[in-house]
Write a structure and sequence with these properties.
A hairpin with a 6-residue loop joins strand 3 and strand 4. The chain has 365 residues and is of the alpha+beta class. The chain has two domains: 8-233, Alpha-D-Glucose-1,6-Bisphosphate, subunit A, domain 3 (Alpha-D-Glucose-1,6-Bisphosphate, Chain A, domain 3); 235-357, Alpha-D-phosphohexomutase, C-terminal domain (TATA-Binding Protein, 2-Layer Sandwich). The chain is built from eleven helices and 17 strands. The protein has helices at 8-19, 22-30, 44-55, 85-91, 121-131, 154-162, 173-181, 205-219, 223-234, 249-262, 340-357, and strands at 35-38, 63-64, 99-103, 110-114, 117-119, 145-148, 166-169, 187-189, 195-197, 236-247, 270-271, 274-281, 284-285, 292-293, 298-302, 307-313, 320-330. Strands 10-17-16-15-12-11 form a six-stranded antiparallel beta sheet.
Length: 365
Amino acid sequence: MAVEVIDSVSDYATLMEQLFDFGEIRALVRSGFTLRFDAMNAVTGPYAVDILEKRLGFAPGTVVHGMPLEDFGGRHPDPDLAHLPDLYALMMRDDAPDLGAASDGDGDRNLIIGRDCYVSPSDSLAVLAANAHLAPAYAGGLKGVARSMPTSQAVDRVAAALDIPLFETPTGWKFFANLLDAGMVTLCGEESAGTGSDHVREKDGLWALLLWLNILARRRLPVAALMQEHWARFGRNYYARHDYEGLDGDKADQLIANLRAALPGLPGRALGGLTLETADDFLYRDPVDGSVSPHQGVRLGFADGSRIVLRLSGTGTTGATLRVYLERYEPPGGVLDAKPSAMLAGLASALEAMLEALGGLGRPG
């Protein structure tokens, strides 16, 4: 048989040059714009060095932990702030780079953080959707956007303003892949830091960074200023995920069963100072293949656009894990610069009280 050896770094970099305006990004770099990219000793290191340092002109050393290692250098290759304390500390300094980013073990998820401005994955998806037209590949507009059901509704407001379809899918990239293959969406993303487009049927961490760089090259705004402008236009979806791990499996199942049984009587009730408007158990009908995916999570929607989502997950190491997604919407002109923890505290306390009344979280001991 014949074996063809290819240079995957070169092929990928060539594709990225077709999607983005590398000349404009180079001009941004020449203006003094600085970047720190943590490759987490994972697969994106060689790609990042070739594209960011060699092709775009960022200074040598812009890419840190760029050598892929079998054990990832003893670190956990997850682009979450908990696993990137050095990057976070750097980006909170007065002399921080203009943009910080990271990608995970297999290069599909990403973290974006500006100087003194962490960008949540949900907000990142919304900002990319609102500004994608600034990159050559998306100058003609987006066919549609998709988000996983637990991801915040921030991108929904962008889709409405752009008058394009918005798809809310269960968790799992296969649902996005159906939509991408059918040509129904251009961008998609999830709250666990995966973002992608129709250039490949997977999430792509380095692609997300390059789209951010193309947008910043066109807008010439600091990340914090871009976020403030975005929230002033669309409002802000304060968002957080709480994971209750190691729960007794039987008790957790019973709690969710009790919650599902209570759903018809919840609309109209007050919770955390907000009025519940809708309550359902999310069922997804795939518009491409017609498949039905029931029981994908409980959604509690409030009259002001806020939301709570609850899902049992089987990905924990022991027992059951209940994932709770809290989302409070502040419209344009509202409180847009508060800490998410402060804005969500009342909602979290009220939810815990309701769950205890329905049988409790079933924590061991």
